[in-house]
Amino acid sequence: MTFTRLKTLSLLVCALLALSFPGYVNGGANNNKKGSQPAAPVEPEAVIEEVNAKQLEKLLADKDYVAVFWYARSCVTCDKVLAELEKIDDDTDSFGVDFVKINDKRLAKQYGIKNFPALTYFREKEPIIYDGDLMDEEGVLDFLTSLEAMDLPDRIEEVNSKILQKIIEDTDFVAVLFCPDHETCPPRVMDKQQCRKCAKALQELENIDDEADQLGIGFVKIHDEALADEYNLGSLPALVYYRHQTPIIYEGELQREEDVLEWLVQNKSTGDEDDVIEDVTSKTLSTLISNIDNLVVLFYDHGNDDSMTVLEELEQIDDDCDKHGIQFVKIDDAKAAGDYGIDSIPAIVYFEKEIPNVYDGDLMDEEQILKWLLGQLERDEIEDVTDEMLDTMIKEGRVIAVLFYDNNDKKSQKVLEELENIDDECDALGITFVKIDNPEEAVEYGINKVPKLIYFEKGIPTIYEGNLEDEEKLLKWLTDQTSSDQIEDITDEMLDLIIEKMPHVAVLFYDKDQKKSQKILAELENIDDECDQNDIAFVKIDDDKEAKEWGIDEIPSIVLFERGIPHIYEGDLMKEDELLGWLVHQKRYSEIPEVTDEMKDKLVENTEHLAVIFYDKDDKQDMRILNELENIDDELEKEGIVIVRIDNAAEAKEYGLDHLPALIYFENKIPALYEGDLMNEDEVLEWLLVQKKTATIEEVTDEILVNLINEHEYVVVFFTGPCEPGETCDHTLNALESIDDELDEAGIIFVTTEDTGVAKKYNVKTYPRLVFFRNRDPLHFTGDLDDEDEVLAWITDDETLEIPGKIEEVNVKMLDKILAENDHVVVFFYAEGDKKAQKILNELENIDDECEEKDIDFVKTSDDDIDKEYDLPSLPALAFYRHKFRTIYTGDLMKEEEILEWVIDLHESTADVIESVDRKTLQVLINDVEHLAVFFYDDECESCSEILEELENIDDDTDKHGIQFVKSNDVKLAHEIGIFAFPALVYYETGVPIMYDGNLKNENRVLQWLVNQKNDECFYVGLGHDGHSAKRGNNFVPNDYKPFQCCPTKLEKSTKVPKMTAQRIGHSEGDQGKRPGVGGGNFQFAGSASTSTTTGKSASKPAATKKQAKVSKDTDDDDEDDDDEEKPLVKVSYANKRSGGSNKPQAGKKPVAKGKDNDDESQEVEKVSKQKASKKSGKLNVKTGINFFQNRLKNLYDIIFQDISLWE
């Protein structure tokens, strides 16, 4: 009994010991092992928590960052993926991201999950689906903790300290707003000053979050006072900018978000070890221009050698720009360049407070660029802008004063000098002052005489009518404009311009002497500011004629123009609040506008794609159809088709519309009638899109057809008669659709009609029938209508187009075709409706047949702006074209006999004079003719006629050499390519211009130069003036042009081709006065900047090229002038990198051509070369080396020229 008790007690003690020391109860064998350790306690495995739909909903409501793993029971790979993701569960927890899993297909579908497994990341309840590899758990972790995954639009994301540390490590540029803890500043509790300051700063800084993101700068916030103390940030809120993990503290006012953004941008590149100009996108560039006062932009093309060479040079001044507070960026975007009026890349534009200024100097001279930029900072002058830049500023609604001027006009220069004095005062008033030298842009604003000043506010122009030389009065006027709070009064020209340029314009047509108008105007002044806030320009016009042009019969009236489309207000003008509501509604919601017949006519005239619904507003069925068509208004707007409605039965009858509603589509004024069901809006939409996107033969009524025949020169009509789908007429019509494009290109209108009224009038008895109306004169087709090629050939045949005994009226398209295809053409240009021109035409009809007998085409044209299109001094005008070259008749246009004699003389005479060309023809020649010489002259030039007379002597010779020689007195065109001094000779080779720099009076030298350009193997690049461009607007008038010339230098040594590096393009002072071929500019391929001159031995000289040999023979011309001292073309030589000698000829010595009379030095070189060759048998000697490189020279050019960038 005692034993049993002792045994029981012992067992109890052992059990207690075992429970107290489990590590020792492992069996005796283990305890005796050497080095044995007690087993570590087992930790529970990391498991992603399972949740249901309600739990997930609560979790998303409570937590900012939640990762959800979606799986399904039937999913084969889900368990495998889950096992991988379980490995990062603890890591996500440490980053403050809750990771859960859920099996709920219905809920998954709501969040866009269709396949399993899947992962969704919720950031402040905003979901984003992970599309990477779920088996890559590290990749998933990077995604969940990345700044990109946390990014929310228009919101600065909140992070914790661990995520912040990772973002700083992974992101080059990140701005962090430190705020007090949430315990200190609970959400929506603003009882403490620092809490209010933080909330206000956050509100302002969120306005620039997207801009910072576009610039590649991350933006986050953190509520962590402990971390702020660690950084010694002091009082909160505080902004810290981490650039490559280096913190920079912002010391300015956090509530001025624009200052913050500028500070972030300036600090983005400052101090970078790699001195690189930052690349930006178009959107980023717009942000920078809006927020940075001093910005330089290089527009370039990374695939262009010129651009990359320029970029390399400009990298050298990037730091200097930073030191002076000028931000430097680059952009490779041709569209963005075009938006700023840049049509030649590379180009530099400097923006100062959003005002652009284009640099027109040498882009290879970085020191000159830096000097110019610093000059822009210091200089206070009115900036020049392009027309594209001006349009952009006006559309943005900025307050600007624009001086339209002519740089070559003395009065303009004087006015400009005076106005420079008030530039600062304008800045103080918030007025941007710019100037523009562009005659076409001036004409657009109704300015025919410069200088003239226009003030723009919110896109609305006001012309200054005072004395521009009195800057004090002008300043007072500008001050009054800025302080005035009235609806602007405008002219009819200004109205047309505003409608064209502004997206939303409200126009009050009124009578300033009418009491009702005055009363309504007083009411409407109350909503002017509200219209501005809604981006609606509000103007008024007192012009009865203009009102009638828009079909406004009742004054006063309001019309809202939305992108040029008029909407008439039919409410009570005395209720300004209702009017404002209507204006805002029209702007926000798209509706088909109601128009008058006059408005419709204007739209037909000016709108390329227009759909017009004719309806009766008192007919319920019509209104139902109109409501259906409202559904496709937005789609049509996206496709560029304007749709309007008109309630006018009389206007409908003019188009032959007997039944309403009806739809007519106008494309370039040509109408097409819709024959389908108007209740089916999808069918209507499809038909309109087909009309716009494909060439179709338009369906018309008799009334429309009559108008077309009367208004257009060439109209082809396919009369089908009553025609049902599937019938022969329908098949024939479908086949003829294939030639519609060709006829359109030729300026011939092709339509079809089922109506028979016009057909009967022109003796059409059987259907289908094709009739060609040429200036209202009909011609019936009698061939096979099913053979569309035969139809096309017949229509476009010269005999078909010609009307016996009449001068054919042609449009521009047809005229271009005639001039291109015919050797001799007489053209009478006139304005439609000109009575004098009609009398002249009656006389000219008498000589049409005689011209036809001589195979001379005689046509007339009266298209709009035909004088501008063909660069005519005035209308009417008569011109004779021989092989596209024009001669204008200067005699009496009423004397047809003299005109006939003049035409026949020109036709039969041989062209032994240099042909005169107009702008249009010259542009065609530059593009089409490979070798073209153009003599530019000015009618006011005294020496031009004498020089031209000399050059006439070589016209035949240039023809023999395949060089076409023409002359042009188009001063404007000359200015566009940098020519300001006359006369001037430019040689175009495949469209690339080269300026002649010699004496134009010596025709033999000119001929030799032209022939050399054609036959020379050298490369020529652009025009220049000591490396600077000669664009219009510079203060100097260049008269010394130097085209860059790249010529081969023959290699003298039998060595391998040395490595070559491109050096800067420039002109050395020593080049002045040298002859061509004596060692041009200082551009060369060399291993070092300088080459030593060998002593004891003469430096080896390059052999002269063939061209140089020719020049050396003719050391003087046959005249008495000193043109022999003309400046040379800049050469590019290819120099060896060896330091033992130079391939460059010494100054003052001419290169020696090979021959019997070589000097001793050349013989010595040859002798030494032979000795070397004898020692190295089996290797290249000098002679074979030169022959080898001559044979491979073209390949060598290709290799070398990849590293050169030469340009104007």
From TrEMBL:
Transmembrane segments: none
InterPro entries assigned to the protein according to its UniProt record, in alphabetical order: Thioredoxin-like_sf (IPR036249), Thioredoxin_domain (IPR013766)
Start and end residues of each Thioredoxin domain: 36-169, 657-820
Pfam annotation, one family: Thioredoxin_6
Biased composition (Low complexity): 1088-1106
Keywords annotated in UniProt: Signal
Region (Disordered): 1055-1178
Origin: domain of life: Eukaryota
Compositional bias ranges of the Acidic residues kind: 1115-1126
Signal sequence residues: 1-27
Protein name, entry field: Uncharacterized protein LOC108053463 isoform X14
Organism: Drosophila rhopaloa
